[in-house]
Amino acid sequence: MRKLKLLVPFLLLIATSAALAQQIPIDPNLYPPNADAHKEIEEALHQASAEHKRVILMFGFQRCPDCHVLNYRFHQEPAKSILVANYILVHVDVGHYDKNMDLAQKYEIPLKKGVPALAVLDSNGKLLYSQKNGEFESARTMDPAPFTAFLEKWKPAR
């Protein structure tokens, strides 16, 4: 009987994960292996300056389920409208925690706390926010509201 009590939550977790996998599309190009994050950030800052936007850096890797969920949530309403109007989003691939470590350090991202991890830059490249405590590490289990609240909080003043 005890084994059954332990097995039920495990089976529920598997079922929830399977359902989530069906609902959240996996983008095969979320973190392209040959992307040049340094160049993409430079281009994003140039665009953000011209459009009076901010830049969000999303640190993660292709096989990170929570990275895909966070990206998906950012591209669903009402977050999508806020993102498009106020931000340029750059995905920074950390590989197997062996890529773009200089960028993680520069933007004060403690990768030991997990990914996805976010940094927000103004259009001049000044760091406004860096995720310190793995706030979105468990994006799969989060309600969509915190994603929208995050975007609202860090959008530029108009």
The sequence of SSEs as H and E is: HHEHHEHEEH
CATH architecture: 3-Layer(aba) Sandwich
Strand content: 5-15%
Main sheet?
Answer: 4 strands, mixed
Q: Structural class, please?
A: alpha+beta
CATH superfamily: Glutaredoxin
Distance between the termini: 61 Å
Lateral strand order in the biggest sheet: 2-1-3-4
CATH topology: Glutaredoxin
Rough outline: globular
The whole-angstrom Rg is 17 Å
Spans where pLDDT lies below 50 across 5 or more residues: 11-16, 18-22
The helix count comes to 6
At the first level of CATH, the class is Alpha Beta
Helix content: 40-55%
Mean pLDDT figure: 88
How many structurally independent domains?
1
Overview of this structure, please?
This protein has a single domain (27-154), classed as 3-Layer(aba) Sandwich (Glutaredoxin). The protein contains six helices and four strands, in the order H-H-E-H-H-E-H-E-E-H. It has helices at 2-23, 37-51, 65-74, 79-86, 101-106, 145-154; strands at 54-60, 87-93, 117-121, 127-130. Strands 2-1-3-4 form a four-stranded mixed beta sheet. The chain is globular and about 35 Å long. Mean pLDDT is 88; it is low at 11-16 and 18-22.
How are the SSEs ordered, and which strands pair?
Layout: H1 2-23, H2 37-51, E1 54-60, H3 65-74, H4 79-86, E2 87-93, H5 101-106, E3 117-121, E4 127-130, H6 145-154
Parallel strand pairs: 1-2
Antiparallel strand pairs: 1-3, 3-4
Helix pairs in contact: 4-6
